[in-house]
Design brief:
It is built from seven helices and 15 strands. By secondary structure, it is α/β, with parallel strands linked by helices. The chain folds into two domains: about 80 residues; about 180 residues, 3-Layer(aba) Sandwich (Rossmann fold), CATH 3.40.50. The strands form three sheets. It has a seven-stranded mixed beta sheet, with helices on both faces. The protein has a four-stranded antiparallel beta sheet with strand order 5-12-2-14. It has a four-stranded antiparallel beta sheet with strand order 4-3-13-15. A hairpin with a 3-residue loop joins strand 7 and strand 8. It is globular.
């Protein structure tokens, strides 16, 4: 395995066009923009016509027998108990970028074959355009497989799984956000982490609250294939218990928890949900301070199920 290092190169800008081509391009662009704006009214557009202000990634689905598309008027948003005006709501059909973050620490109460099998389930369920990145962690986060949709590459890479050292989970999450997912933004909005572990952290320098805030700030959804807590629910100083870490990561980002032995079901559910049930909601916060943490509460009409993050972190660098 390779140590995770910030070695990604910045995107290069293309050379400027000559003036004549530039004028022709501008004219064509205006016509294209007109068509795009009209198309954006459709639920199959990846953007709404008014995605200004604060954006939420929302998972929404019908629980009744109705077939009409979900609309902006079906939803009601509150921040710190104050109703907010929703400006835009649109279906997001874009591909997903999914990081599989796998605990490889010494005392994790499962074997390597189960970890490999659970990881492989995802490559069988992703849609065209989706990509997976595999990162294993103990006291360091290490790249197992970079972005791919190739099952053979993934299977071969899993031979580097091992069990060693202590789980520095929060540091691994921080590296996942800063070095793997942030370089994919803003072009990629649909990002998720699937944590395969028990939620235990022993020794990270990154505080739990800090990484949870960063995940929420970047609209990254955390799912989990949960393994039983190796500590038996022991009290943890200055951080939640291991099982509570899993719960807070999932509930705080709009994700969902499965058990490790549900890996096949979980992989299908997660990949289907990201492709079929993800929406972008935009609003301009009113009567709230962006410098304070704000609780987010999204309500939908009867017959509609929803999940989204439960807080907006403070806008403080």
């Amino acid at each position: 395995m390779r140590l995770l290092r910030p070695k990604l190169k910045p995107l290069r800008r293309k050379n400027r066009m000559n003036p004549l081509i530039s004028k022709l391009f501008c004219s064509s662009f205006c016509l294209l923009l007109f068509g795009v704006c009209a198309f954006a009214q459709s639920r199959h557009s990846s953007r709404t016509t008014d995605l200004e202000g604060t954006i939420l990634s929302v998972t929404a689905w019908r629980t009744d027998s109705k077939t009409e598309p979900l609309k902006i008027e079906n939803f009601y948003l509150y921040e710190n108990g104050i109703e907010q005006k929703i400006k835009g709501f649109s279906y997001d059909p874009s591909p997903s970028k999914i990081v599989l973050l796998v605990d490889n620490s010494q005392t994790l109460p499962t074997d390597l074959e189960r970890l490999k099998k659970a990881t492989m389930e995802f490559v069988y369920e992703i849609f065209d355009g989706d990509q997976l990145f595999i990162l294993a962690y103990d006291e360091k986060a290490e790249i197992v497989q970079e972005w791919t949709d190739d099952a053979k590459k993934m299977e071969a890479s899993l031979d580097t799984f091992r069990k060693k050292g202590n789980p520095f989970l929060f540091d691994a999450l921080s590296s996942t956000v800063s070095e793997i997912l942030l370089p994919q933004m803003p072009g990629t909005r649909k990002t998720a982490i699937v944590l395969i572990g028990d939620g235990l952290d022993r020794g990270s320098k990154t505080p739990f609250d800090k990484i949870l805030n960063e995940l929420q700030n970047q609209n990254i959804t955390v799912y989990s294939l949960q393994i039983p807590d190796r500590t038996g629910g022991a009290y943890r100083r200055d951080q939640p218990k291991a099982s509570a870490v899993i719960t807070q990561l999932a509930e705080g980002t709009g994700g969902k928890i499965f058990q490790l032995d549900e890996a096949q079901t979980a992989a299908k559910f997660i990949c289907d949900e990201l492709r079929r049930n993800r929406y972008l909601l935009s609003y301009l916060p009113i009567n709230t301070s962006t410098y304070d943490a704000r609780r987010v509460f999204l309500v939908a009409d009867e017959g509609i199920g929803i999940r989204t993050k439960n807080a907006q972190p403070p806008n403080v660098k």
